TrEMBL record:
<dbReference type="Pfam" id="PF02758">
    <property type="entry name" value="PYRIN"/>
</dbReference>
<dbReference type="GO" id="GO:0042981">
    <property type="term" value="P:regulation of apoptotic process"/>
</dbReference>
<dbReference type="InterPro" id="IPR001875">
    <property type="entry name" value="DED_dom"/>
</dbReference>
<dbReference type="GO" id="GO:0007165">
    <property type="term" value="P:signal transduction"/>
</dbReference>
<dbReference type="Pfam" id="PF00531">
    <property type="entry name" value="Death"/>
</dbReference>
<dbReference type="InterPro" id="IPR000488">
    <property type="entry name" value="Death_dom"/>
</dbReference>
<dbReference type="InterPro" id="IPR011029">
    <property type="entry name" value="DEATH-like_dom_sf"/>
</dbReference>
<protein>
    <submittedName>
        <fullName>CRADD protein</fullName>
    </submittedName>
</protein>
<feature type="domain" description="DED">
    <location>
        <begin position="4"/>
        <end position="79"/>
    </location>
</feature>
<feature type="domain" description="Death">
    <location>
        <begin position="147"/>
        <end position="194"/>
    </location>
</feature>
<dbReference type="InterPro" id="IPR004020">
    <property type="entry name" value="DAPIN"/>
</dbReference>
């Protein structure tokens, strides 16, 4: 049984693109120390989850996949779901649906997996560097007013990377990226930067990432 669980986990993780595998590790930080997760390869992550959640690693993984919108993998590997229906009642006449704990499903059929929501593209470090190369001298204004970062942190970034404005921009964006974790999507950054006074090519570049 343990061997089947390990094989399923490994095959599942191999099916994730690198971006979503990293997002999965970010989301697992609520249950597993980040020091173990961040450097972990796919086989190492399997080992960590099997050790920390014996007999329950597939259920834990299924919960993270729900947050990533990968219902196709949940169905393909027939993963168990932690879904609890508060009231197994038919739909209301006005079309309202019964309440579900955690808002993990909708509709009237308990245990049914809903249609996958839109799966927003999470930014990668490569994306951040390409954006950093396009940002101008207004990087501190962008960081404070539009990304919600502290001035002291921006000054620290500048001191740690003397004379390298591109790295200032990159580290600023990465600071926001780390804070937002799985919410650091193309759409989210685009929404933050739209009110800023930036080169229009930056927003054009972000728009192009939606098509990748």
């Amino acid at each position: 049984m343990a061997r089947d669980e390990r094989a399923t986990l490994l095959e599942l993780y191999q099916a994730l693109p690198e971006e979503q595998f990293q997002s999965l590790k970010f989301l697992l930080e609520e249950r597993v120390p980040a020091g173990l997760l961040l450097p972990a390869s796919r086989p190492e992550l399997c080992r960590i989850l099997l050790q920390r959640f014996p007999g329950n690693s597939l259920r834990v993984t299924a919960g993270i996949l729900q947050q990533l919108g990968r219902f196709d993998l949940i169905q393909r590997f027939q993963l168990p779901l932690e879904v609890q229906i508060l009231e197994e009642t038919p739909c209301e006449p006005n079309g309202d649906t019964p309440k579900v704990r955690g808002d993990l499903t909708s509709g009237c059929r308990p245990g049914e997996i809903p249609a996958p929501p839109l799966n927003p593209r999470r930014l990668t470090e490569k994306d951040l560097m390409q954006i950093a190369q396009r940002l101008g001298k207004e990087w501190q204004e962008v960081g404070i007013l539009h990304l919600g970062l502290e001035r002291s942190r921006l000054e620290q970034i500048q001191e740690e990377n003397p004379g390298n404005p591109v790295l200032w921009n990159f580290e600023m964006l990465r600071e926001w990226w780390r804070r937002e974790r799985h919410k650091a999507t193309v759409s989210q950054l685009q929404s933050c930067l739209e009110p800023a006074r930036l080169d229009p090519r930056i927003l054009d570049f972000l728009q192009s990432l939606h098509r990748d």
